[in-house]
Amino acid sequence: MYCSHLFVPLHPNMDRFDKTNAQFEAAIAECRDIFSKKLHDYRASWRILRPASLTDQLFIKAKRIRSLEIKKESLVGEGIRPEFVALINYGIVGLIQLEKGFADTVDIDNKEAMNLYDHYAHEALALMKRKNHDYDEAWRGMRVSSYTDLILTKIERIKEIENLSGETLISEGIDANYMDIINYAVFGLIKLKEGN
Fold first, then answer.
1. I need a surface site. Which of 65, 120, 175, 183 has the fewest CB within 10 A?
2. What is the pTM of this model?
């Protein structure tokens, strides 16, 4: 799934869904590469994060994007793009933590962590492709700032579900919200790249 062919330039004769699918795959491949490098440096230290802490980490990243969108200036020299990458990777970590629960120590090796990452990245990618078909690329007509606001809304929903101990009446679960966060962040990465 994550091969060098993902970085082949897009051809003008590709149909729009093929082009979009290639962009989705390239964005996930970029995030995977960063996740793998951080895993080398820190191991799976995120295994220690409890659900609320992971939600707060997503919140910090999304709030920073919104702050930079409003202020139009970064004093620490890092832009919006790395934060969208972080949202994707923490969203995938969230899906892993939902499956495995949190740990008191790093309890998986890097190979297992990458296998789990690939599993959930593949699920998110497949969902993106299905939704893109059904919504007919509506995301392309949206502003990047709207993705940010929608991500913050999803995080707020996750907080409420956590506060209810998962006992919702009608709403999708935390996993569906993580998937949506990943999707919107991928859209943000693509739109920012196209803007350059």
1. 175
2. 0.89
